[in-house]
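Data availability (excerpt). The following record was deposited with the supplementary files.
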Amino acid sequence: MTQIAKLALEDGTVFTGEALGARGEVDGEVVFNTSMTGYQEILTDPSYRGQIVTMTYPEIGNYGVNDEDVESHRPHLAGFIVRENSRIASNFRAQGQLGEYLDRHGIVGLAGIDTRSLVRRIRIHGAMKGVLSTIDQDADSLVAKAKASPGLVGRDLVREVVPAEAREWDESLSYWAQLDAERRGSPSGPHDKHVVALDYGMKWNIARHLRNVGCRVTILPGTATADEILTLNPDGVFLSNGPGDPEPLHYAIETIRSLLGKKPVFGICLGHQLLGLACGAKTFKLKFGHRGANQPVLNVLNGKVEITAQNHGFAVDENSLPAHLEITHRNLNDNTVAGMRHRHLPAFSVQYHPEASAGPHDSRYLFKQFHEML
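Predicted structure:
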């Protein structure tokens, strides 16, 4: 028997559909992702901690799930919304179905609503707090809970997803990335450089790409101090993606500030924002963020356009950039800062995800660029 589930937004809007995955009630910031594929990578991306993710593509789940296409050990998002959940998983690599996967990991989902209407509302009014429930069916009660929920601003969500301890990364590229690397004739070479990756909620494919360009990767929790990092004497330091608002992460900002000039630094997504804050810039919250595998970015250094995978709700404020930071990339949808570098020190970052997973490969050169900097 189909069970009813409801999504209530803080503005009073309520959507009613079918329960998908686990039963229960969750709150979070309601956002959308425009990717056509890669839903399992999205589910397991720790950057979505505290968010209820809506997929704009109308049918999700059609190729199933497997044990390999993951970006962390489990899903981290608060809830998942689709227009239609495919009842058939048709792929030679499929090991299960989407609904079963969500249920196994305790993720509350919703299917069968007009996701176009929901996404349009978010685009017009901005990302909103919401409550997704299979338990409470009272619209007024759910709206009140949505209004009272904490949201993302000012919260330290990184501490909820950082690894408990350090580890050496020894996994190879994922199935499709390895096939592509072999086709291009670029298999992983000798690991002649040592990189410490600060994990604020890192996607695993980042470590795979660092290793593939010849780096030995040691992953440390994002709470690590500069002294703990420098004790390992790495050739360079990588700053990972992660969830939520960068401004409350004072420990990370201070660590990065202490590392600048001592080791080459490369940051992605949250790592990009933290590098900006450490250099004296400010960040701000975007109206509804950039989330998808088809975001155009201009490399202002060479005039080329890259199609990129992105997932962020905050950005570096261009008007606050100090003189020693130079813009290298711009988001072509809204002209926000998509990449920057230090004019005097070996440090650079991008707001998007060159490791993709899932997404285009236009920006993978950045990993080679970092390796050459070491």
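Summary of structural features: DSSP finds ten helices and 19 strands in the chain.
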